[in-house]
Each structure stands twice: as structure tokens, then as C-alpha cells.
Task: inverse folding
């Protein structure tokens, strides 16, 4: 890509906002494209030992005066005799009837991974992989364009993702594995063993950031004989994405090209009977057939190219 060259326009659903690492609290940021059903916000961090309360607000704007409406106010409180969570909505400067959940799933001094999943009519929240609450919208989700984090909380990462389209490979909550910060295991090229091969329902998740001057990006699956039955390859010269067989045959993937300099990306591969389904940034874009026996004989995942990896999971 030459300097000054314009990026091809992408549908909003394919554009992922980059994660934010170690933000200083209070932290307020714009949510690119606003909230909509099918989006997910991941909050990774820890609760200080002396914490009294913190809040995560999904706001309709970021003004100080007047105070913006808050469509969803998520407020864990630790200082009471019975720690709990409050959810509420601020409309026109007035709080609505609050909803309360006892048996707080967060603990002082402990780390956490919170997923906020946004559906058509309500938000669902999981804490450390377990469903915790659901809260019905009292303001249109389309009005939300700002995330605010306040109070006694240490945040290591904030991620903005789309819910996986692969219902077959998930449960009520999609995979929201922590972002690994400067982990030696995520240095590129990256190799991960697949001791049992790939089986129906298994999902490979790769998230990362394209480097400023990218040359190539490949995700390869190797079998027990070190052959490469299939490779997912992004070409930065002609901006194409393709499956490449062990014999070098290319099958172009008809989807928007996501791998641009300094742009965040997510690749999901779902193993089904004899094939791999592909999703980019939460949007399904097709599949490639290998045969179930070939999938079961796979033993290694390799990732190389001009990317910084934040998450590799399977």
C-alpha cells in the first residue's frame, strides 16, 4: 500500500474498534459506530482490595453540562454489608427505577473478565464466563455512542467486538478470552500445538493489529506429517484474501479486505463436519472443505506476517 493511498470503504459491521490497554480511570471513549444489537464489549481488569464501588456507563453523548442520558448504568457496590450490583437508566437528568442483583460475582483483590452482550431488547452480562444478569433497555440502544468507566477499578483492557455468528461453536456467551498483553507466547511467527486435531464445534480465534507497513499475513494448519493442507493468506499487494491448498491452488474469498495498516482484526475458524467456516470481525464469509479425517490429523496452528497478536485461542 503506497503512502497516501485511500482505504477501500468497508461496511460498518466489518470495522472493529481497536482495544484499549491500561486506560486511566475515569476513562471516557467514543464507541465507533455506536452500539447496536450484536455488539459485545469486553472489560478485563481487577478490583482493588480497598474498592468501594465502580461503574460502567453506556452513555448517549459525553457532555459535562448538561449530564448526558445514560442508557445502561452498571454499578457494582462493595462497601455495603451485602455487596450487590445496581443497573439503572438516567433519562433527562432523572434516574429511573433501579434493578438490583445480590450475590456479587466480583471480589476485592481478584481479577475479572466481564462481557457485555447487546441484543435487540436487553443487555446480558457474564462475569468470568458465568451468566450474571440481564437488563432490559429503557432508552434506544441506537442512541448510545460513549463508554464511561469510573470509580474503584483497575482496567487492563477494553475490547469492542461483534458476537460470533457461529451459534454451533458457542453457548449463550461467545468466546471473550482475555487479551494477552506483550506475552512471549504471542510473538510472531506464532505456533500452537493441536494435539487432538480439530473436531466439530471447535473454534479458533485470532485477534490482532496489522503493522504500519505490512508485507503479508498467513494462518496455516499443519498435519502430523508437517504438510500444510490449508492456509488462509492475506495479500497486501492486491488486497485479496484466499484459501491456499497444499498444492498451491488459491480459492479467493469474496469479502471486504480487512487487513489494513494499524487496523484491528478478528479471524474466527469454526470446525464442522469436514469443513472450516470463516468469519471476519464477526461476519460469516464462507467455508472451505477438507474432510473430517484431514481435520482430525491436524497438529499445529502457525501464524506469521506483519501483525501484532492480542489473542490466539482454540
Result:
Amino acid at each position: 500500500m503506497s503512502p497516501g493511498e485511500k482505504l477501500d470503504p468497508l461496511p460498518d459491521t466489518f470495522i472493529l474498534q481497536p482495544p484499549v490497554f491500561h486506560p486511566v480511570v475515569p476513562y471516557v471513549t467514543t464507541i465507533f459506530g455506536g452500539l447496536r444489537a450484536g455488539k459485545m464489549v469486553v472489560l478485563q481488569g481487577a478490583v482493588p482490595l480497598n474498592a468501594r464501588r465502580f461503574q460502567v456507563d453506556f452513555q448517549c453523548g459525553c457532555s459535562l453540562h448538561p449530564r448526558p442520558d445514560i442508557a445502561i448504568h452498571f454499578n457494582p457496590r462493595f462497601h455495603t454489608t451485602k455487596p450487590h450490583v445496581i443497573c439503572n437508566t438516567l433519562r433527562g437528568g432523572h434516574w429511573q427505577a433501579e434493578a438490583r442483583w445480590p450475590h456479587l460475582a466480583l471480589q476485592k483483590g481478584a481479577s475479572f473478565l466481564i462481557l457485555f452482550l447487546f441484543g435487540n431488547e436487553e443487555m446480558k452480562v457474564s462475569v468470568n464466563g458465568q451468566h450474571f444478569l440481564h437488563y432490559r433497555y429503557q432508552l434506544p440502544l441506537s442512541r448510545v455512542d460513549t463508554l464511561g468507566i469510573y470509580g474503584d477499578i483497575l482496567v487492563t483492557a477494553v475490547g469492542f467486538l461483534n458476537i460470533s455468528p457461529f451459534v454451533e461453536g458457542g453457548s449463550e456467551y461467545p468466546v471473550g478470552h482475555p487479551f494477552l498483553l506483550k506475552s512471549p507466547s504471542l510473538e510472531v511467527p506464532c505456533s500452537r500445538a493441536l494435539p487432538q486435531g480439530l473436531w466439530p464445534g471447535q473454534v479458533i480465534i485470532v485477534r490482532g493489529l496489522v503493522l504500519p507497513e505490512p508485507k503479508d499475513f498467513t494462518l496455516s494448519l499443519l498435519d502430523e506429517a508437517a504438510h500444510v493442507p490449508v492456509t488462509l493468506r492475506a495479500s497486501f499487494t492486491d488486497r485479496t484474501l484466499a484459501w491456499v491448498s497444499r498444492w498451491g491452488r488459491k480459492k479467493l474469498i469474496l469479502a471486504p479486505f480487512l487487513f489494513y495498516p494499524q487496523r484491528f482484526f478478528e479471524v474466527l475458524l469454526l470446525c464442522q463436519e469436514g469443513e472450516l467456516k470463516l468469519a471476519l470481525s464477526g461476519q460469516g464469509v464462507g467455508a472451505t472443505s477438507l474432510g473430517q479425517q484431514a481435520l482430525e490429523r491436524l497438529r499445529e496452528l502457525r501464524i506469521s506476517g506483519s501483525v501484532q497478536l492480542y489473542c490466539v485461542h482454540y
Summary: The mean pLDDT is 88. The longest strand covers residues 69-77. The longest helix spans residues 292-296.
